[in-house]
Design brief:
The complex is a heterodimer of chains A (229) and B (232). In chain A, 79% of the residues lie in helices and 0% in strands. With 229 residues, chain A is mainly α. Classes of the chains: A mainly alpha (229), B mainly alpha (232). The A-B interface holds A 56, 59-65, 67-68, 71-72, 75-76, 164-168, 170-171, 178, 182, 185, 191-192, 195-196, 198-199, 202-203, 206-207 and B 64-65, 67-74, 76-77, 79-82, 167-172, 175, 182, 185-186, 189, 195-196, 199-200, 202-203, 206-207, 210-211.
Amino acid sequence: MFLDGYGPLLLAGTWVTIKLALLSLAVAVGLGLLGAWAKLSASWGARLAATAYTTLIRGVPDLVLMLLIFFSMQIYLNDLTDLLGLDPIDIDPFGAGVLTLGFIYGAYFAETFRGAFMAVPYGQMEAATAYGMREFQVFRRVLFPQMMRHALPGIGNNWQVLLKSTALVSLIGLTDLVKVAQDAGNVTFRVFLFISLTGLIYLVLTTLSNGILYWLDRRYSVGVREAQL
Amino acid sequence: MIDVLDQFWRAYLYASNGSPSGMAVTLWLLVLSVSMGFFISIGLAVARVSSRRWLSIPLWAFSYVFRGTPLYVQILFIYSLDFVKGTPPLAAFFQSGFNCLVLALTLNTVAYTTEIFAGAIRATSAGEIEAARAYGMTRFAMYRRVILPSALRRALPAYSNEVILMLHATSLAFTATVPDILKIARDANSATYQTFASYGLAALLYLCLSFALIGLFRRFERRTLAYLGTHR
């Protein structure tokens, strides 16, 4: 039989990987915007906190952070429930994986967004304020759309790295694509086949996201003149 | 924290029972894969920018595949190669987790570094190449004297990033049973149950290594890119 009946499981694993990557992306973009805002803010406390966040997180391998955050989160939660006399709560590995990946890549996104915010000319914000827009309207209508154009190459890079680092969650016990493929390979003694297939699926995912990024780039670059070389 | 430090600081940093420390293994992995990757990539980058398509297209495919799949999957892939078992020398090579890991790390860094170097070579200004041709240099002499010295300098900022990423990538070593910093942290964790301290120490060591590498590259860049006038 094709794939010894592991086809549906592989698809389910792929779906877990995609969901994990997209949800972590959402968390990371949120944290990244927050971090960039803090880094550019006038308050030195916010700047210090954001700088510590981006520097520390980017200096440590994502795998180490994943093990550190994932396992100690559970232990501290156990201590807390013990202290309060509650039943122990098991952290849902999927949710924890999303939060951990999002927290790690938020640091990378913060740097990307910071650079992009700085690339928007200050006159644009002044003009928006002069039109009587409130601070949030300035952000939504003027700053964000222009910032995105500068941020897109960086976002694309970060997304590709994030997507590939989802392969690591199998090491903290999530049944993602890699884990399913390993199990299937070990049972059927066809590890080579299943691992190659995993690589192929990742390649399809990265190729697809390249296409989407290209489309987004064109969309956000509307009205920008490009010099002909 | 103190327990972990007390019992395991030798294993993290120094040496324990005759086996090299986690730090030493991590650095050795990094030096091996990055230095091999550097020299291979220079050759491949020259081929990658070649106008001969039978040279450049296979290299494009190689780097596309290796940059489009996770390193962890690449390690598992190299582990799962079956055909090597037929030939004794290959079987002996692939039996060692260390060899498999270094092979995977090197292939991975070659894929990224080749693209970095190829980009820098393409950015060489046409005038410099014309001038080199006008002096009657052979292709080899042109690469050695004109293109590579300036291209490698311009590639330095991107290349330093890649080296830091490789340092981080070596933390996958424990999946191939190679005792790097993270493996020691896992041992410390299972011996003391002090998860935060064990992994936190590993994180701290990686942080120090990252900062040391960044500092070294900064110094080096200040020397080699001095002509660009980037005074920081």
